[in-house]
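Subject: sequence -> structure tokens, single chain

Hey, anyone have a minute? Need the predicted structure for the following. Not urgent.
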Amino acid sequence: MSVDRFLSHLADLRPRFECEPAGPTQDTRIEVGISHLLRPSAERSALTELRRLLSLPSPDVEALYAVHDGMDLYIQGSTVGLALYPISTWRAATDSFRQDVELSGRVEDELYPFEREGIVVGAPPHSGNVLMLYQGRVHYSDHDGGDDTPVAENFGAFLGRLALDPPKLLYDLGCYARYSDGQSDRQWVPLRYLHD
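Reply:
Had a minute. Here:
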């Protein structure tokens, strides 16, 4: 998928999710409006740092960050479905991830290569999990277990998954984003992405 197609997805008119209640399956559905927080383009020095941090050239990562140096996606109120971090935070986020892994008692031999050598570029907020780039692939480190199967074979394919079916990708990443009807404490999970 081209970065241009993903950026077009971010510009969809009146984006929203059709949601169902969290918990046992029910027939009740609501629509919740969502938005995105798109940061300004990365400065030249940040793009130079991006190239230094990645193990392989990634034209799609560079193309996206040349337009937006990070973004919070699928927002409703304080809920953020997915965050892609600004380049300036990648190194600190990676160091923090490795410290958390060490504190959890996992030893280096138990880590997948992407966890030992990849760079953290984003996360589903408040999940304790991270998205990492390693050897051109997008991986997901899940603190509850998981494997080394990439989320996508490259960053363009990852953007394609997001644009094609955001609720499916959010579900595959653990379904941490919970949305609100604005009238109750009931939590709602996205089923379908809609726009005008």
